[in-house]
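My main concern about presentation is that the manuscript never shows what a single data entry looks like. For the editor and my fellow referees, an illustration may be useful. For illustration, here is how one protein appears when written out as sequence plus C-alpha cells:

***
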Amino acid sequence: MRTRGARRRSGTLSRMSFLDALRDRVLVFDGAFGTWIQDQDLGPDDFGGPDLEGCNEHVVLTRPDLIAEMHRSFFDVGVDAVETATFGSFPIVLAEYGIPEKTYELNEAAARIAKEVASGYATPDRPRWVIGSIGPGTKLPSLGAISFAELRDGYETQVDGLLAGGADVLLVETVYDLLQAKAAIIAARAAAHPAFPLRLLAAELRDQTSRLDALDASEPDLSLRATLSWSHRALSGDAAELFGLLAAAPGPDIGIPAAARLAGTPRRRVGALLRELEAVSLVQHRAPGRYQMHDLVRLYASEHCTEMPMEAVSAALRRIVDFYLRTTFAADRLLAPKTAAIDLAGLTEGGQPEPIHTEAEAWTWIDTEHSCLIAAARTATEHGWTHATWQLAWTLDTYHYRRGNLLDDLAIWQNAQAAIDRSSDVELQNLVHRHLGEALVLAGQPTQATQHLQHALELALQTGDPYGQAHTHRALWRAWSRQAEHRRALEHATQAASLYRNLGNPVWLAEALNQVGSSHARLAHHELAASHCAEALDLCRRHDHQEGAARTLATLGYTAHQTGRHDTAIQHYQEAIAYYRLLGNTYEEAEALDHLGCAYAAHGDARQATANWHAALIRYKAQHRTVEADRLRVRFAELGVDPTASQ
C-alpha cells in the first residue's frame, strides 16, 4: 500500500461544481461498465493473458483505448458523469487473479483515462465529471471473511489511486455489509485528511455523539444531517413528535401496539403516522406490523427528542414500559399458571396490555418482543422505576428458563439487583437476590450464586417469610447440586419440603419432594429416592402440574438407570421429554435427552444413544451451555463418532 499522504489531490473546484449542479438539477450517470465490456467480445490477450481473462478492471492497462471509447460513447449520448472502470479494483478481488499489488496502478489509470475523456467534453456552461467507483469486494467482514483493518487498508489504496488519477467524486456502491461502508468512509475521510491518524477517524464513527458529524460532507447543505432534515421538514406535527419519541423507545424495532402506547395515540392513528415516516424513509417496515430505524436515523431523531419536553418523553417511555410489562405478565400467566403471581399495582393507565389468549400466542409475543423487553428493563432502571425493573425480570423468568436463554436471564436479574440495591424493602431484596442466585447457577457460576442465595435466606429469616425461606432453600438445593455437594443439597430440599407442607402448598411441595428424591438418588439411596418421587408425581398429577411431573419422571429415570432397569429408565425419560416439548422447555429437554442417550447406551442401543446425544448437543450449543456441550463432544470422541453424522 502507498504511504498515506503521498497522493495528488483532485481539484476542489470540480467537486464543488458537481455539488452545486446536484443542488440544481438531476445529473445523469453512465451505464454499467461490466455489461458494456462483455459486449465487446474480448479475448485473452485483451485482458493481458489467459490468467487474467475475466478481470475486466485490468483492461484499463491492456486496452486503454477501449476504456476511453466506452466513456466517449456515454458522453456522446449526453451523460453528465462517467464512473471509472474500478468497481472490482480492490486488493481482495484482484488477488483472485494474482495481482493485488496493482490496486493503486489500476485505479489511478482508470481515473486518468476517464478524466482525459471528460475534459474533452466539458464546457464552461456544462462541466463533465469523473466518479470514482468503489465496489464492495467479495468478502464480508461481518462474517469474519476479512478483517476490518485489511478491508480499510484496501479501500485506502483504492481511494489513493482514484484521487491521484483525477476522480472528482467517490461513489461507494452496492454495499451489503455496514462494516464495508464504514471502512470505505474511513478511507475516504483519510484521503481528505491525510495527516489525521486512522484510529481517530475510526473513533469518530464509533462514538455515537459524533457519528453524524463524522459522516458529514464539507458542504453543510449536503451533509447526512441536512439530508435527513429534508425528510423531517416534510412531516406533520404528530409524525415529527412520534419520530423523536421513537429514538428513545427501548429495543431495536417497534410494533404498532407498542408505538400506540408510546405516542398515547389510537392504533389506527399511529399506523398512519408510521406510514408517513416510512414514506420519507425515516423508518423501515421490516416485517408485518413492525418498524425499525437505521441507527444513523435514530441518532438524528435523538437530537429532536432532546428538544422535546422532558416530562412528555418520560411519560411516553413509562407508558411503553408498562405496556411491555403488563402484556408479558399476561403471557407468563399462560405459560406458568402454577407459579405465584406478583402485584402490578401502580402502573400507568396508558400502558394497557395487548390481549393474549393462548400459550401459543404467549410464546409468539415474547419471541417477537424479547429484545424490546430486555431494553425496556434497562430503560426502567435508567429512569429509577425500580418495581418495573424487577417485575420485567420476573415476568421473563419462565420464558428464559424454558428457552434456555441463560445469559439473558442473568443480565436482566443483574440489572434488577442494581435497581434495588438502595431499596429498604427487605422482601424485595430477598426476591431479587434469590432470582439472581438462581440465574447464576444456571449460567454456571454456582459459587457466586450461593453467596446471593445465602443472603436471600438471611433476609427471609429476618422478615419471617416462610415462602421466601422455602423458595430460597429450593434454589440452594440447585446450587449445591451443581457443585456435587449432594448431602448439603439434601438438607435444603428437606427444609423446603417441610415448609411447603406446613404452608399447605401441594404444587411447591411436589417440587421439593422431587428435589429430595433427586439428592437421595445421587447418594445411592434408591429406595428413599423412589418413595419421595412417587409422592411428588402423585401430587403433580392430582394438581395438573405438568412441569413438576416431567422433572419427577426424569428423576425416576435416573434412579432406574442407576439400578440397572434400563427399559424403565427409557420409558420415564421419554415421558419427561414429551412433557418438556409440550411446555416448550428446551432447557430441561436437553438434559433429559442427554440422560436418555445414556440409558439407551446401557441398554446396548448405540444408534438411539447417539441420536439422543446429538439432539441434546444441538440444544446445549443453542443455549451456550459450553460445559455440557464439551462433555458430549468428549463422549463422541471417545466412541469415535462424528457428532454431526446423525443430523
